[in-house]
Design brief:
By secondary structure, the chain is an all-alpha fold. The chain is about 60% helix and about 0% strand.
Length: about 90
């Protein structure tokens, strides 16, 4: 009898390396600079992103991350690794 093999693909949208404004800004910049995420002409979007959104959102979002951050790191990363280990 032939045994079937299955694979599981785990993906997520990423997470900041730390719950700090600098790390959150870096993460948001990478994520929101992706043309597949924001489908707006670059000449309009990038000045808005770097001039308004990142300076205003990064400190606020960092505070939110600080409220949920775990000893092991970002909850998304911690739980994703736990799921990975459980599936292995």
């Amino acid at each position: 009898m032939r045994q079937e093999k299955y694979g599981v693909l785990m993906v997520n949208l990423g997470t900041p390396e730390a719950p700090t404004p600098k790390a959150v800004k870096r993460h948001l910049a990478e994520f929101l600079s992706d043309k597949r995420v924001v489908d707006t002409p670059r000449a309009l979007w990038l000045p808005l992103l770097y001039g308004v959104i990142l300076p205003l959102r990064s400190p606020r979002v960092a505070k939110l991350y600080q409220s949920i951050w775990m000893e092991e790191g970002s909850p998304l990363l911690v739980y994703s690794r736990r799921q990975q280990q459980a599936l292995a």
